Amino acid sequence: MIAIPYLTALTTYFSYGLLFCFGQIRDFFRKFIDWCWSPNNLQGYAPICLGLEDFYIRRLYLRIQDCFGRPISSAPDAWFDVVERFSNDSNKTLKRTEKISKCLNLGSYNYLGFAAADEYCTPRVIESLKKYSASTCSTRVDGGTTVLHNELEECVARFVGKPAAIVFGMGYVTNSAILPVLMGKGSLIISDSLNHNSIVNGARGSGATIRVFQHNTPSHLEEVLREQIADGQPRTHRPWKKIVVIVEGIYSMEGELCKLPEIIAICKKYKVAYTYLDEAHSIGAVGKTGRGVCELLGVDTADVDIMMGTFTKSFGSCGGYIAGSKELIQYLKFTCPAHLYATSISLPAAEQIISAIKVILGEDGSSRGAQKLARIRENSNFFRSELQKMGFEVLGDNDSPVMPIMLYNPAKIPAFSRECLKQNVAVVTVAFPATPLLLARARICISASHSKEDLNKALEVISRVGDLVGIKYFPAEPNKLHQEERMKLE
Amino acid sequence: MYVRAVPTTDLNRNTEWFTYPGVWTTYILILFFSWLIVLSVFNCTPGMAWTIVHLSHFLVTYHCFHWKKGTPFADDQGIYNGLTWWEQIDNGKQLTRNRKFLTVVPVVLYLIASHTTDYQNPMLFINTLAVFIMVVAKFPNMHKVRIFGINGDH
Question: Do A6 and B6 touch (CB under 8 A)?
């Protein structure tokens, strides 16, 4: 639930309207000048973009391009080096300089701190690189399945709590190649309205009918499910071949946890719906031993039919996995194009995942895993409560390491980003179309490698920049310590 | 004064912004402020100013809602490329609250413009023509209809 001040909503719509008008006027003049002064001989060539497709990129995104896609020149640990860029033509092109600035990293999904060199994982990864080389250069069915791949799949299945697992080389592909295999024409996909683009693309590519239910609202899911089961397939009204409900563990733009127990209860009540849980952000980051949102909310993993996740966020590697029953995984190994035709996951990356899982479970002999998990929980709760005390509008549930700070107005997006960079704090800002038009935000990801001093510096900088930019939409709670000091001086 | 912003089930990023709170008020305020600006710039009678606002509103909204097709970004892979904004809104469902509001606004503007110019002739004819075209374009029966193939797909 996002509470937006009414005046801010009006000014945001007005700003976007103004930006849209200016974009149209500039497009009109560009067409006019091109028609008069530089007639081009491109007869017979088809245009690259159809109609208005690139309007948003050309007229809105390029104006503040320096806030997105900043190149870095070191590993994305708690502190990293950001390369400075400058532009001579008001941000149409950006040129890199030789200068770098060391900034605090609040944007990487480095939940457990495995993104930089780790004392247990990195030597093993380098050894496996020397032993197995960087890539298998073939698909899993040809010559790309090694001992390490089998070990990785067993390790992942054991960690997640399912009988078997299958691993792919890329996280996005895991969703968009699995959904067309499992669902076809005559099936029904019911997905949350804020699901990630990979799920939306996979669902569209499958040919199944897609229905959307209101974000994290089990009552609306029940309504949609009842209506669809009663109606059947469109036009023929035959019963659906398969029904799947797709939700995510932690929604990356809201930082909210999914209401998994209620949704599982509804799916069990109606008996026909399978559940698909995408734990990209929650695996390894939440839960007492890091096993994700099922452990945190007390849901038995046997109740969720298909569990999907990625290794990019908490494990510091790349790739994605699907965990489920043995029959499901066997079926996927025979039919999924990502398994049959795509190169298998690179072996040093697989070794990194196995070592990271060993550290998290404590099987490397130390308690670093448990310490990391405790630290990320502590850091997230501390940071979120401090930001809320200062008066910022912060989304997300307790225990979630993702916290978006609402900005709303389009002009505050580059202002916040640039001011923070000047004070050596790197944040990621997200705007339309990744978020709804009104609700632009700065998304902060807390890591287990952030120390208390780092968090305090971040809070100080964000508070100062927040005052400058004007995003403290809620009244701040008065600081009792300051009042006591003032009494002492007087 | 805060309002709650609930995420909608509309997946089309081009039209889902219209379902959030504050849009109707912004629309009416823009019309009112443009009347004030026209009055200050052209130094004409209030009636002429309302006529100018009504006609420019007609031109701008006809171009944006009923002429331009598709979406201004490429993320949705062109599934709305044959539909104008009016046909995309609310997922194509007819007679929703948003559609009724957008049909009423040009009619109210027409009534204000005609009343303040005392129903005198050249303005009355042009205003009536504009509102007639606007309202017919918004009928549910005109969904995806292209008269004489104007603005049709290739």
Answer: no
Instruction: Reply yes or no on whether the pLDDT at B38 is more than 90.
Output: yes
The pTM of the full predicted model, rounded to 2 decimals, is 0.88
H/E stretch holding B133 reads: helix B121-137
B51: its two tokens: 């006529």
Spell out which residues of chain B touch residue A193, defining contact as CB-CB under 8 Å: 7-9, 11
A227 touches chain B (CB under 8 A): no
CB atoms near residue A327 (< 10 Å) = 10
ipTM associated with this complex: 0.90
Secondary structure of residue B30 in the 3-state scheme: helix
CB A250 within 8 A of CB A282: yes
d(CA A221, CA A36): 56
Dihedral of CA atoms B72, B75, B80, B85 in degrees, nearest 10, equals -30
- Give the pair of three-digit tokens for residue A290: 């890091």
Spatial separation of the C-alpha atoms in residues B54 and B34, rounded to whole Å: 10
Size of interface A-B (CB pairs under 8 A): 102
A481 pLDDT above the threshold of 60: no
Residue A334, judged by CB atoms within 10 A of its CB (0-12, 13-18, 19+), counts as: exposed
Q: Is the pLDDT of residue A489 over 70?
A: no
Q: Which of A10, A193, A436 sits opposite B29 (nearest CB)?
A: A10
Contact A462, A386 (CB under 8 A): no
Contacts of A50 in chain B (CB under 8 A): 70, 78, 81
Question: Using CA atoms, how far apart are residues A399 and A164, in angstroms rounded to an integer?
Answer: 28
Q: How do residues A444-456 score in pLDDT, each as one tens digit? A: 999 999 999 999 9
The answer on pLDDT for A419 being more than 80 is yes
